[in-house]
Design goal:
Elements lengths: L1 E3 L8 H4 L11 E4 L2 H7 L9 E5 L1 H15 L2 E4 L5 H9 L6 E6 L1 H14 L2 E6 L11 E6 L2 E6 L5 E4 L1 H5 L3 H12 L1 H15 L5 H20 L3 H22 L8 H12 L6 H19 L11 H11 L5 H4 L3 H10 L10 H5 L3 H10 L4
Parallel strand pairs: 2-9, 3-4, 3-5, 5-6, 6-9
Antiparallel strand pairs: 1-2, 7-8
Helix pairs in contact: 2-3, 4-5, 7-10, 7-12, 7-13, 8-12, 9-10, 11-12, 11-15, 12-13, 15-17
The structure holds zinc ion (ZN) (2 copies).
Length: about 375
């Protein structure tokens, strides 16, 4: 069993001086065999009885086994909605710890339900598809709107590389996309810092860029699939930890995530989260590159490189290939800032017109 140690990567808040709390709820990330990991949970300060959350798919993958080993009560998650999370939270009774076995939906529902009851939370991801694995953010739907709320990070994350390796390729592509998108998130955050005096944490930036660099290295020079996947997993943890220390998704979610949220709410065809974010990131990288003098000057972080990495990750780099009509993407670029008017990004700054949005898509090579 391997342990990812975050202690060396997270400085004390007083040393950083950013004003954020540098929350360290996440105490350990265990990497190794599922069963031995689950058996160790009792020694890590978690109290039974346990509640295990899963969905139909993740029950087969690992949820059933986890519930059995821990003699836990099982909670079947059906939809990523606040309504469902509230309902589940109400049924937790005297449980001491909530364990999520799953992808985004299960993790977010369980995270929210545990938070509502003030219970410890354990995250057991079944796919390397997004950076919500250890983040304190739960992203759920109310009616047709997606809303992200601050909850709490898990106390423990338990990762079985064999389980992640068996996830469909598209899910790993989504994970890569979610991390590559940070090239835009960080620059959007810096716009907020430089133009509105928004609080900024260099420690969170370091964690996010460590994640980005790991993924770039994995996509450009790592041939061994196992090591590639372990870099991706580590990157998803670092990005989640960045959100944890500032108590917000700000370091990991800018204009490109708003575009993905817009597509979630308005596009007939919904792609995986990180794939939509990567498409949004290509568009926003083109926009930043043209309009923001503070955009990356290092070739390895610029639009052309981002397209190359995306392609290597199996992410479509043209809208036609992704099956997204350019009309919807234009609307996303024009309208997305309204989803979160107070999260300043390049879209809030310039509020592009439809004609400009089309130009951005051309410059990004998406059409
Ligand atoms: Zn994301
Ligand atoms: Zn800080």
């Amino acid at each position: 069993m391997k342990l990812i140690n975050l202690d060396d990567l997270i400085r004390p808040a007083s040393e950083c001086g950013c004003g954020f709390s540098h929350d360290k709820t996440l105490e350990a990330v265990l990497i190794g065999d599922l069963e031995s990991g689950v058996k160790r949970l009792g020694n890590l300060g978690l109290s039974p009885p346990y509640a295990v959350f899963y969905d139909k798919v993740t029950y087969e993958i690992a949820g059933g086994r986890v519930a059995e080993i821990l003699d836990a009560e099982a909670f079947l998650v059906k939809e990523p909605t606040f309504c469902e999370a509230e309902e589940k939270s109400g049924k937790l009774g005297e449980r001491g710890t909530v364990i999520a076995v799953g992808g985004g939906t299960v993790i977010d529902v369980a995270k929210y339900a545990a938070y509502k009851r003030g219970l410890s939370f354990v995250s057991i991801p079944t796919a390397p598809s997004h950076d919500g694995i250890v983040s304190p953010i739960a992203s759920l739907f109310t009616q047709k709107r997606r809303k992200s709320v601050l909850t709490r990070s898990p106390k423990i994350a338990l990762i079985d590389p064999k389980i992640l390796a068996s996830a469909p390729r598209e899910l790993a592509a989504s994970g890569y996309g979610d991390i590559l998108a940070k090239l835009v998130s960080i620059k959007d955050w810096q716009l907020g810092r430089d133009e509105l005096g928004e609080a900024y944490c260099t420690n969170a930036e370091e964690l996010v860029m460590k994640a980005v660099d790991l993924v770039i290295k994995a996509l450009t020079s790592e041939r061994d699939p196992e090591r590639r996947l372990s870099s991706l997993t580590e990157a998803l943890i670092y990005s989640g930890a960045a959100m944890m220390i500032v108590g917000s998704s700000r370091p990991a979610s800018g204009s490109e995530h708003l575009i993905s949220h817009y597509l979630d709410m308005n596009s007939e065809k919904r792609l995986k989260h990180g794939i939509q974010c990567a498409l949004g990131a290509m568009a926003m990288a083109a926009y930043h590159q043209e309009r923001n003098p503070n955009w990356w000057t290092e070739e390895k972080y610029r639009l052309e490189a981002l397209r190359k990495y995306s392609q290597a990750a199996g992410i479509p780099i043209r809208l036609s290939e992704a099956g997204i009509p350019s009309k919807i993407m234009v609307e996303a670029i024009v309208e997305a800032w309204k989803i979160r008017p107070n999260r300043y990004t390049i879209l809030h700054k310039f509020k592009p017109s439809r004609v400009e949005a089309l130009e951005i898509l051309k410059k990004a090579g998406l059409i």
